[in-house]
From TrEMBL:
A Pfam cross-reference name: GHMP_kinases_C
Claim: Cytoplasm is one of the keywords in the record: no
Name of the protein in question: GHMP kinase
Domain GHMP kinase N-terminal span(s) in chain numbering: 80-155
Length: 338
């Protein structure tokens, strides 16, 4: 059996500039960090069962991978040439489609596990590119590359997306005290509304040429955010988050809506310095930076706004920033591959 863990991520600035329609004209940049919420994936050989099984929100058993409904598992198994005698199960800290990159975390966990199943090692950069190939090239999803790289790499990083489709990774090294202070000033709320990123990104991609100068501003804001992050200037970071969210709302009609606007305005009115909706938009999670003294008032205001919008699954998500990327936690098939 092989157990793999892949972290989810918070993307601070530059989101959307990882789309090829933009970065082939101007370098895209994203600054993000991984958090202590994970996708877990188990790969279990079943030598006496001549089928493939996928267990997630439902359970499927098929005679051949091409009969599976789960597109990532089906496509990956067929790409690896694995046709039978295997069971794959997945578990997660949070629901899918929350704007925290869980779909790509699933992909990095799946691919790292399948490489290990075949007795092969794979580096962080190779893993990220393999996940991009699975999602973008094979599954034809209209997404970028930031989530795959964030989950595979782990920690605070700046990812630069280059015109030749390569990705440069720059770790952002923050001392413990500044990182701890940022955690204490961070509030993350799940709206209770999930949505596939592709449903938002399809329209966004079609309009990139109309907003090219805005995308450039968002890409260039990464260096300013890095400076404030290293200086521990949380109010400055919050201001950049807010500015980026205001710009991003212009990209597509479904990035925001009245429900998201109500929640975001409630957080600001209760004392938040700034924030943003994570992921493509349309639902998912809202991130705020705010002094701990106003956190209590913000929680009350956010719950009231959620109740007004009938968001029964709304909740706060406590987060800690992490350093590790996609890891193998257990491997008794090939013990040396961890």
């Amino acid at each position: 059996m092989i157990l793999v863990r892949a972290p989810l991520r918070i993307s601070f600035v530059g989101g959307g500039t990882d789309l090829p329609d933009f970065y082939r004209h101007y370098p895209g940049r994203v600054l993000s960090t991984t958090i202590d919420k994970y996708v877990y994936l188990v790969i279990n050989p079943t030598p006496l069962i001549d089928k493939v099984t996928a267990r997630y929100s439902i359970s499927e058993t098929a005679s051949h991978p091409n009969e599976l409904q789960h597109t990532r598992i089906k496509t990956a198994l067929m790409d690896f040439g694995i046709e039978r005698n295997l069971e794959i199960g997945s578990f997660a800290s949070l629901p899918a489609k929350t704007g925290l990159g869980s779909s790509s975390s699933f992909s990095t966990a799946l691919l790292k596990g399948l490489y290990a199943f075949q007795g092969k090692r794979i580096g962080k950069g190779e893993l990220a590119e393999a996940a991009c190939r699975l999602e973008i090239d094979l599954l034809k999803e209209p997404i970028g590359k930031q989530d795959q790289y964030a989950s595979a790499t782990g920690g605070f990083n700046i990812f630069q997306f280059n015109a030749n489709d390569s990705v440069s990774v720059e770790p952002v090294l923050i001392d413990y005290l500044k990182r701890s202070k940022l955690e204490k000033n961070t509030l993350l709320f799940f709206t209770g509304v999930t949505r596939p990123a592709s449903s938002v990104l399809s329209e966004q991609k079609s309009k990139i040429s109309e907003h090219i100068e805005t995308y450039k501003k968002m890409s260039d804001s990464v260096s300013a955010f890095k400076e404030k992050l290293l200086a521990g200037d949380i109010r400055g970071m919050a201001s950049l988050l807010h500015d980026g969210w205001m710009l991003k709302k212009k990209f597509a009609s479904n990035v925001s809506n009245s429900m998201i606007d109500d929640l975001y305005e409630a957080g600001l009115a209760a004392g938040a310095w700034g924030g943003k909706v994570l992921g493509a938009g349309g639902g998912g999670c809202i991130l705020f930076l705010a002094h701990p003294e106003v956190h209590g008032a913000m929680r009350i205001a956010m719950r009231q706004a959620a109740a007004k919008n009938n968001l029964s699954d709304f909740k706060e998500i406590p987060v800690t920033f992490t350093q590790s990327g996609t890891d193998i936690l257990f491997n008794n098939l090939h013990p040396k591959i961890i």
